[in-house]
Amino acid sequence: MRTSIDDCPVCNYHNDCFANREGKCIALTDTYFKRGYCPFYKNENKLNAERKSDTKPKLKR
Predict the structure, then answer these.
(1) pTM of the prediction?
(2) Which pLDDT value is given to residue 54?
């Protein structure tokens, strides 16, 4: 079942985060962090680069 954007928690840490949609976090259910910043932050470019590197075949040793 899909969660509505209205049900997602407000997140104002990073506007360029891959999970930020209309000021809400679509990846997490809670955006309260004791240290005051989101440890899961990634912008779109970093996320895409990680996805590309994960799709390369791994060498067997």
Answers:
(1) 0.70
(2) 75
Structural domain boundaries in the chain: 5-55
The residues with which 38 forms a beta bridge, in sequence order, are: none
Name the β-bridge partners of 17: 43
Placement of tokens 């791994």 in the chain = 58
Q: Which two tokens stand for residue 57?
A: 């075949």
Strand residues in 2-44 grouped as ranges (E):
20-21, 24-25
For 9-43, what is each residue's pLDDT tens digit?
998 889 999 999 999 999 999 998 888 888 889 99
Is residue 25 a contact partner of residue 8, using CB atoms and an 8 Å limit?
yes
- Residue 42 CA to residue 39 CA, distance in Å, equals 9
Q: What are phi and psi of 30, to 5 degrees?
A: -140, 130
